[in-house]
């Protein structure tokens, strides 16, 4: 329930920041960006980046903000205040248009609230505490995206890397309750609207065709983020001009591609609406990871799940649009696009089953398409293991 409250709080703040930045009242971020003036598109993310930088400068000068997964795995004390403040600053940056995931904030805030809520349980063993905090983090993810199954599996497979029945039971209860609480805002509706249209079972063949493409895109995405991420968090005043400059770059790019600002949901929305041209898909495929890396290099912090999803969706859309153009076919763009998202997410997170479930729950298309997502995700992950000899990376 605390994780659901964390999801409600971060989602409410995120929407408020988006509306203020782009000066709109109703609708999704993409509609707000598209309707805003060219000046606001450029200046809004720049001001948001500068304000977030001031917040991080003040926070990081006084205390350390340790990584979530490592802190829980090492059973270290939870920095409740620094994680909560850091989560709010993340939401401010993402809401003003930064190309970073918004899922990091509710995970941190949920873990901080979960630690506060269970502190009085003196009989908790260190392992029990680790399981509960991981469940809180996964439930926070589930609450903001209305994905109860994926939220639970994130806890047990990405955070804990286990199939233990006790962990599974705790994770499913936590995620389900958090999604129920978060439904006050999400209304228990999927984050993405699946279009009405016919898709064919022959798309499963394109799931295999997507595997090497999503492997290449996923590996490139991971390496670019690793190269961009500073060895130590930036703590000096340089944060302010760096993040303001990254925001300005995002604002300028959004003049031609309004799908770019934000965590990546706008890219997924356009791909499901078959609103991409081949040129725009290729541009987004290149610019989304580059802008994400720019914000990381400038000292920003945020999730990597939705930026990698958006990059994978652009790769899938580019492939199917190329095939349709070259062969004169009419393959279903939304299905292949989401399959591409699942493939890239499986490569970056190292958990193909979780990646396929997460992507399916985001849009809840016909159930058989889960098999397409799973085929692409497992094939891409298998190729990664063969090519690199490495399994999970859990970079989100």
Automatic annotation (TrEMBL):
Which UniProt keyword terms apply here?
Chloride, Chloride channel, Ion channel, Ion transport, Membrane, Transmembrane, Transmembrane helix, Transport
- Residue intervals passing through the bilayer: 39-59, 131-155, 205-225, 237-257, 277-296, 308-327, 339-360, 367-387
Entry's Gene Ontology cellular component terms: chloride channel complex
Query: What Pfam families has UniProt attached to this entry?
Result: Voltage_CLC
The record's GO molecular-function terms, alphabetically, read: chloride channel activity
UniProt subcellular location: Membrane
Membrane-topology annotation of the record: Multi-pass membrane protein
Please verify whether the record's keywords include Transmembrane helix: yes
Is-annotated flag, keyword Methyltransferase? no
Q: Which InterPro entries match?
A: Cl-channel_core, ClC, ClC-type_chloride_channel
The protein's name is: Chloride channel protein
């Amino acid at each position: 329930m605390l994780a659901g409250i964390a999801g409600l709080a971060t989602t409410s703040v995120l929407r408020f920041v988006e509306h203020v930045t782009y000066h709109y009242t109703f609708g999704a971020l993409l509609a707000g960006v598209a309707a805003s003036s060219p000046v606001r598109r450029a200046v809004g993310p720049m001001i948001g980046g500068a304000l977030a930088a001031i917040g991080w400068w003040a926070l990081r000068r006084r205390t350390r903000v340790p990584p979530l997964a490592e802190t829980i795995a090492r059973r270290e004390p939870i920095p409740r205040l620094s994680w909560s403040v850091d989560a709010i600053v993340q939401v401010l940056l993402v809401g003003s248009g930064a190309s970073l995931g918004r899922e990091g904030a509710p995970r941190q805030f949920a873990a901080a609230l979960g630690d506060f809520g269970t502190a009085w349980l003196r009989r908790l063993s260190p392992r029990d505490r680790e399981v509960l905090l991981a469940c809180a983090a996964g439930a926070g993810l589930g609450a903001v995206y209305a994905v109860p199954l994926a939220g639970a599996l994130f806890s047990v497979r990405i955070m804990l890397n286990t199939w233990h029945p006790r962990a599974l039971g705790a994770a499913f209860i936590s995620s389900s309750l958090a999604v129920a609480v978060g439904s006050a805002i999400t209304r228990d509706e999927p984050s993405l609207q699946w279009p009405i249209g016919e898709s064919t079972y022959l798309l499963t063949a394109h799931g295999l065709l997507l595997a090497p493409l999503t492997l290449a895109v996923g590996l490139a995405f991971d390496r670019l983020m690793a190269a961009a991420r500073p060895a130590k968090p930036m703590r000096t005043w340089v944060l302010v001009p760096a993040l303001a400059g990254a925001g300005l770059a995002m604002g300028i790019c959004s003049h031609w591609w309004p799908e770019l600002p934000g965590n990546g949901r706008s890219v997924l929305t356009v791909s499901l609406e078959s609103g991409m041209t081949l040129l725009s898909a290729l541009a987004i495929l290149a610019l989304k990871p580059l802008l994400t890396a720019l914000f990381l290099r400038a000292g920003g912090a945020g999730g990597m799940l939705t930026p990698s999803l958006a990059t994978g969706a652009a790769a899938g859309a580019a492939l199917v649009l190329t095939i349709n153009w070259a062969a004169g076919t009419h393959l279903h763009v939304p299905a292949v696009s989401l399959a591409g998202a699942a493939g890239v997410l499986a490569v970056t997170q190292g958990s193909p089953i979780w990646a396929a479930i997460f992507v399916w729950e985001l849009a809840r298309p016909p159930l058989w398409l889960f098999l397409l997502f799973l085929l692409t995700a497992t094939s891409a992950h298998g190729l990664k293991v063969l090519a690199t000899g490495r399994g999970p990376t859990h970079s989100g």
